[in-house]
Amino acid sequence: MATTEESTEKRSLNFVEQQVEKDLAEGKDNGRIQTRFPPEPNGYLHIGHAKAIAMDFGIAARYGGICNLRFDDTNPIKEDTEYIESIEHDIKWLGYKWANVYYASDYFQELWDFAIWLIRKGRAYIDEQSAETIAEQKGTTTKAGINSPFRDRPIEENLRLFEYMNSGDATPGTLVLRAKIDMAHPNMLFRDPLLYRVMNIPHIRTGNRWNAYPMYDFTHGQSDYLEGVTHSLCTLEFVEHRPLYNLFVTWMREYMSELQAEGKPLPMNEEIFNSYEGPRQTEFNKLNLSYTLMSKRNLLALVNEKLVGGWDDPRMPTICGFRRRGYSPESIAKFIDKIGYTTYDALNEMALLESAVREDLNSRALRVSAVLDPVRVVITNYPEGQTEELVAVNNPENPEDGTHMVEFGREIWIERDDFQKEATKKFMRLAPGKEVRLKNAYIVKCDEQHPCDEDENGRVTTIYCTYDPETRSGLPGSDRKIKGKTLHWVGCHNAVEAEVRLYDRLWKVENPRDELASICEEQKCKTLDAMKQIINPDSLTVLSKCYVEPFAATMPPLSYLQFQRIGYFTPDLTSTPEHPVFNKTVGLKDTWSKKN
């Protein structure tokens, strides 16, 4: 796949690759490279995750290492096997393979044992205060925090209460385990962070075994350590978490060394441990996209409120949404490569993503004919009842894609805006007395005396033309020059009626995340109410009376097609040859930038 193979072109290394090559040159971890992609299974992956996936899996593949998939399943309230299955499917579709599948829940016992060790070392204690009180006592960035009155609780009492936290009898919110670090530390995360909380909720994998669950900051680094991860690659919001990550990793190393000294089995590969320097966290910028909202919480709200058709709605920024819209995994990889990796956040233009999609589909999409706003054309000098087969090239960019046959007859459909009854001189399409070439077929001329029929409202119903039988495409003499353009068409006798869905930006504003925050602050309203104010009511237009050639109707769902002169489309998951449904992927040109 293009997503994982090395490009033959010369390119400069990004800063993460530079760090990896420096580590290899210094012989760290005996030259071993191991990464991981650790999504929380509480929603579907979006385009932002694709960038992290490309980094995590790409680094491992590029330097002969491995990348594991690890589900961060520490919050049983929000997690579901549906999300696990979708995440696995999306990663495979993007073109990547993991070495192993792990879960944070695989390490619940190891994390519990480590927490007990911390309590015994006087580095953790049980706090019985409310979350609000604990938050107040943490102070501010300019004011030191206040020690909890339970901070110096006896070790044996902490151990007893820690076991009670997991008994199922403790009430959520009444007990937490906190690390004992420094309530005056300038990094607020060091002010005795929470390690465990009581939830009393069954877990999708461990059932009722655990009632107390570890916090993310405590789980993340220790899971990396237990797996032997060498490079923990994260987005920029984890920069301030890195010192705490490193501290917990240092404590884990001390814990492991003590186990080894006592002759006890290690909860990880001992050979790796003996040469292991621990995971090194490096942060890179998120993928922020204009006219896009990527918070899983907000995406879930869109789904639950039925403001979209589901997680795979083609207007959603989810991987499955882009897949259903007709994006290729290669086009997403091309876009990620274009924007690159930096140490600062920026808002990337949706138009840049669409240009990458357009560039990729130009080389892989099969060309077919479809008419979205049809008007009938009668070729009066073509024999009634006669049809003929014409050759259509599937993809001029790739001759190996071959050809298919199209049928031409006396009556055809063309686009309504390809005809004007009273045309200007610059109008180069069909008009009274003007000639155009029909794609793969003949030159036709619109009748000057009786160009069309109209209904009582003045709407054109039928256009009348004649054809030049000497101008069939591919025949000698067919290259007669005319001023008119080449039009696409579909034969009336065998056209298949289709539904076509045209998609536009889901949001009316360029930066919906900031706009939502502004609206909520000004109006004191809920996020969902703010979302409804800026969602684009014209993000989906459904055309029900379109016509496509039979070849297009037989294409399986998610095929890559170009409707000639219109744009790129894909058959929807619900499409059938009897009732084809097509989703617009992207236009042939960027019309959004001009429009706005």
Descriptive account of the structure:
The structure is a single chain. The two termini are 36 Å apart. The strands form 7 sheets. Strands 14, 17, 18, 19, 20, 21, 22 and 23 form an 8-stranded mixed sheet that branches. This protein has a 7-stranded mixed sheet with strand order 12-26-27-28-24-25-13. The protein is elongated. The N terminus is likely disordered. It has 17 helices and 28 strands. With 596 residues, the chain is an alpha/beta fold.
Model regions low in confidence, pLDDT < 50 over at least 5 residues? 1-9
Report the portion of residues in β strands: 15-25%
Structural class: alpha/beta
Rg, Cα atoms, Å: 31 Å
Shape, principal axes of CA atoms: elongated
Query: How does the major sheet shape up?
Result: 8 strands, mixed
Helix content: 25-40%
